[in-house]
Write a structure and sequence with these properties.
single chain; mainly alpha; Four Helix Bundle (Hemerythrin (Met), subunit A); Arc Repressor Mutant, subunit A; 3 domains; 65% helix; disordered C terminus; sigma factor; DNA-binding; RNA_pol_sigma-B/F/G; sigma factor activity
Length: 258
């Protein structure tokens, strides 16, 4: 490519001159190369805005240049939009697409990627409106989808942004895999808590509160009764009913660990 002075005026003149020529004009390829060269600083500037997010800077520059080339090839000067106004969203869109596609360590369908984003947004919204963490049922109702689809989206999110075990974590050659511990008996309880999430969604709001206060808040039935405003006997009946529902969603081994 011919190196030209990097000024906005010259860059605009080049892109307008190129866009005015028909596709088969012999001067068009040369003008195209010069226009791309002139607008490279814009591509680099936009790429640098996305640096330090886990992707190599050189890779981001290449992605931004690809977006710039697409913008140059698609630009139509007669539409009344200057080139910068057209190129910037094109380049930024290419960078965002790169992150969306590359930050999923296990290749999953685009539908699940979009579902995961929708679930995350719904979770944030519902947490603010409900004043508590939303259940699977809450999210399903909010998004207008089934609970199975919500669970599928949550499972798919496990593929998001994993890190290689060979990633260096310190000077001297230590890798991430070296920091992993051995078998921990607490994992069984952690797995139980994960399994309890969908099971808790089968309870109504009052049952969820009673179970949470009893097993997570370590409160007695009498304390729960005073807090909710019902009798201790009523709490006992509701707790028995709630645990019976949970047993239908959990394996016998998981229930025995309660």
């Amino acid at each position: 490519m011919t190196v030209i002075a990097d000024t906005a005026v010259q860059a605009d003149e080049l892109i307008v001159a190129m866009a005015a020529l028909p596709a088969g004009h012999p001067s068009r390829p040369g003008l195209r190369d010069r226009a791309i060269e002139a607008w490279l600083p814009l591509a680099r500037h936009l790429a640098n805005r996305y640096a330090n997010r886990g992707e190599p800077r050189d890779d981001l520059h290449q992605v931004a240049v690809l977006g710039l080339i697409k913008a140059v090839d698609r630009f139509e000067a007669d539409r009344g939009v200057d080139f910068a106004g057209f190129a910037i969203p094109t380049i930024v869109g290419e960078l965002k697409r790169h992150f969306r596609d590359r930050t999923w360590s296990v290749r999953v369908p685009r539908r699940l990627q979009e579902l995961r984003l929708a679930i995350t947004a719904a979770n944030n919204t519902l947490t603010n409106t409900l004043g508590r963490s939303p259940t699977v049922a809450d999210i399903a109702t909010h998004l207008g989808i089934s609970e199975d689809e919500v669970i599928e989206g949550l499972e798919g999110a496990r593929a998001y942004q994993s890190t290689s075990l060979s990633t260096p974590v310190a000077e001297g050659g230590a890798e991430l895999g070296d920091t992993l511990g051995g078998e921990d008996a607490g994992f069984a309880n952690a797995e139980l808590r994960v399994a309890l999430g969908p099971a808790m969604a089968s309870l109504d709001e009052r049952e969820q509160k009673i179970v949470s206060l009893r097993f997570y808040g370590n409160q007695t039935q009498q304390q729960i009764a005073e807090q909710i405003g019902i009798s201790q006997m009523h709490v006992s009946r509701l707790l028995t009913k709630a645990l019976a529902k949970l047993r239908t969603h959990l394996d016998a081994d998981a229930v025995s660990a309660l």
